[in-house]
């Protein structure tokens, strides 16, 4: 019923590797371009980001990571590519880089910042009214986890704002699902989603303006 945009981590890794190989072939880069310094791969990655060729930038990152697994440039490269993909509205890839950074380089000094960037990527993925319901609920849970883990983080006010908007989006989505099931005569399914709405009764007291998609977009949302 709902569009799903879930990419397993393994699939994202394969996609990045394929894009890297494809980019090298199509752009005329020599296939035997190996055994370069970490600075070489890093500087070329930055150059391609400036050229807005993120596929090629990804390929240089793959080479940097493959040939210099312990390079201190890796952590910075992950954050830079994550931000670049987020600016390019490629939020799933951005989230992938932020996740990888937290796994490998997360520390008490930076973990709240990178977690915040990951939440931003998820939040901006909801540019349209109706998106993947699982990703929406995952983002809500991650925002709540952020508040619990980093109650004194400088980024908490922004996370709380995102959380409120995500909760409102979830409320709006559940209301639309209820209407859909009612139109189709599925009373039990409609009641299930009413109970989900009632579980967060407080959110119904928040004043907000319902989002409405254009008629031509609504045709493809359900």
List the helices and strands and how they pair.
Elements: H1 9-26, H2 38-50, H3 54-67, H4 73-87, H5 91-105, H6 111-124, H7 133-149, H8 156-183, H9 187-199, H10 215-218
Structure characterization notes:
By secondary structure, the chain is mainly α. It is built from ten helices and no strands.
Summarize the structure.
With 222 residues, the chain is mostly helical. The protein is elongated.
Annotation keywords:
disordered N terminus, elongated, mainly alpha, 222 residues
The biggest sheet amounts to: none
Number of strands: 0
Strand content bin: under 5%
N-to-C terminal Cα separation, in Å? 6 Å
- Topology as H/E string? HHHHHHHHHH
> If helices are DSSP runs of H or I spanning 4 or more residues, what is the number of helices?
10
């Amino acid at each position: 019923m709902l569009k799903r945009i879930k990419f397993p981590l393994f699939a994202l890794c394969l996609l990045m590797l394929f894009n890297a190989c494809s980019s090298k072939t199509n752009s005329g880069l020599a296939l035997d371009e190996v055994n370069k310094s970490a600075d070489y791969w890093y500087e070329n990655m930055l150059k391609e980001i400036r050229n807005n060729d993120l596929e090629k930038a990804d390929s240089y990152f793959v080479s940097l990571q493959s040939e210099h697994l312990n390079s201190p440039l890796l952590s910075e490269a992950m954050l830079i590519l994550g931000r670049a993909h987020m600016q390019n509205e490629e939020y799933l890839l951005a989230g992938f880089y932020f996740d990888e950074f937290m796994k490998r380089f997360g520390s008490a000094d930076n973990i709240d910042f990178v977690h915040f960037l990951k939440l931003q990527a998820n939040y901006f993925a909801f540019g349209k009214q109706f998106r993947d319901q699982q990703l929406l609920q995952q983002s809500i849970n991650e925002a709540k986890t952020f508040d619990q883990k980093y109650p004194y983080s400088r980024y908490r006010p922004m996370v709380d704002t995102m959380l409120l908007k995500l909760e409102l989006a979830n409320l709006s989505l559940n209301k639309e699902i209820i209407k859909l099931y009612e139109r189709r005569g599925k009373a039990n399914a409609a009641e299930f989603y009413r109970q989900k709405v009632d579980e967060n009764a407080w959110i119904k007291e928040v004043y907000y303006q319902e989002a409405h998609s254009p008629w031509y977009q609504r045709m493809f949302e359900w």
